[in-house]
Design goal:
Elements (H helix, E strand, L loop, with lengths): L2 H11 L12 E4 L9 E4 L4 H9 L4 E4 L16 H11 L3 E4 L1 H6 L4 H9 L1 E11 L2 E9 H13 L13 E9 L16 E13 L3 H11 L7 E6 L2 E17 L1 H11 L6 E2 L7 E10 L4 H6 L4 E5 L14 E4 L2 H5 L2 H12 L5 E3 L11
Parallel strand pairs: 2-3, 2-15, 3-4, 12-13, 13-14
Antiparallel strand pairs: 1-4, 5-10, 6-8, 6-9, 7-8, 10-12, 11-14
Helix pairs in contact: 2-3, 6-7
Length: about 375
């Protein structure tokens, strides 16, 4: 098995295409075509994590956070980032980071938090736009079903909990081939009319290359007419944050105590208790101050996130309780989730869960 086989499965879970523009996801160090010896899964890749990979004979580190986040002009070991990269390269260890691609995934960081604290009726808080496209193509009626089925097989026509979604309309196509043409039907230099189906399917943007490749491979025409349209529709299955509900309303103190226990945090910084009961909850792992307005607009009683600054808490305005549980604490279960995911995909291959606590924040 090769490193790229693991990357393929990670991309199925959380395509790098859906990572935020500021982020740095994907294979950061190493050659994807190298043979795979072992996988170590971690929240952060630090020097001691690379040591752990060496001890466990793992030559691929799957990391939530990217060790390379800003541009590097030199690598001479002058700081922890450079030393980590140098050690990984010296020991031929690849590093793959998934970060905001998993933040935006419907089954990802925020879904993990929701399940941990027991939220139901969950959905994406801030759906991403421009992540969906539509394919429109035209095919002779006798070939249309095969083309549709082949496109379905590679992910076209999937809408949430529904697969094989498409729309077809009958019409008359015309074409005339020149002397160099080899028409599937009709005669060179003579206009031909053919009963055709117009086939329309939506698909996720990152699948475009595969979708078009599949279309061209399975379409009988020498020249295939097709259109790819970018849809401005918001994608309800991809985006930042999630909103859900407790099965039963809790008093604010009960809700905060529950979250504190489940998320293993020593303290929760929060805004004024302005609710009698907590029912509707928004969660956003990592830094989530940018989503305060969205949480308020959705009528949430409680917003669980991290990295809130002093002035962020003023935005609560007695309409929501803002709770900062800590950055590491909000994402701590991610590495276990990734380990379990990869173990299911590669059941006969050892996936090692890092035991290194990489939280740089300590409490006195």
């Amino acid at each position: 098995m090769l490193i790229k086989d693991v990357i393929f499965q990670l991309e199925q879970l959380a395509p790098s295409f859906y990572a935020e523009d500021f982020d740095n996801t994907g294979l950061l160090v190493g050659n994807k075509n190298n043979a795979l010896n072992g996988i170590l899964v971690t929240l952060d890749t630090l020097e001691n994590v690379v040591d752990e990979a060496i001890d466990n004979k793992c030559n691929l580190i799957v990391s939530f956070h990217p060790i390379i986040f800003k541009g590097l002009k030199k690598i001479n070991g002058s700081n922890y980032v450079e030393r980590t990269i140098l050690k990984a390269i010296k020991n031929d260890i690849a590093i793959y980071a998934i970060h905001t691609a998993l933040d935006n995934a419907i089954i990802g960081v925020n879904d993990i938090i929701c399940k941990k604290i027991g939220l139901i009726n969950t959905k994406i808080l801030i759906p991403k736009s421009n992540t969906l496209k539509k394919l429109i193509t035209y095919a002779p009626i006798n070939a249309a079903e095969l083309i549709k089925n082949k496109l379905f097989e590679v992910g076209a026509g999937k809408l949430g909990n529904y697969d094989e979604c498409s729309f077809s309309s009958k019409g008359m196509g015309t074409f005339k081939g020149n002397n160099q043409s080899t028409p599937y039907v009709g005669i060179k230099n003579k206009q031909h009319q053919e009963n055709e189906l117009m086939i329309s399917l939506t698909f996720e943007s990152h699948l475009e290359h595969l979708i078009i490749e599949t279309l061209l491979k399975n379409h009988p025409y020498e020249e295939v007419a097709y259109e790819v349209l970018i849809l401005s529709n918001k994608n309800p299955y991809c985006g930042m944050g999630m909103i859900g509900e407790f099965k039963e309303a809790l008093k604010p103190e009960e809700a905060l105590s529950h979250v504190k226990k489940i998320m293993n945090t020593n303290t929760i910084k929060h805004s004024k208790i302005c609710k009698d009961y907590i029912k509707k909850v928004v969660v956003l792992g990592g830094s989530g101050s940018f989503a305060i307005s969205a949480a308020k607009n959705k009528g949430a009683d409680l917003f669980i996130t991290s990295d809130l600054k002093y002035h962020d808490f003023f935005q609560a305005e007695n309409s929501i309780i803002l709770a900062d549980i800590g950055h590491y604490e909000s994402e701590q279960y991610t590495k276990l989730f990734l380990t379990e995911y990869l173990s299911k995909k590669f059941p006969s291959f050892a996936i090692v869960l890092s035991t290194t606590n990489t939280n740089p924040v300590k409490y006195f």
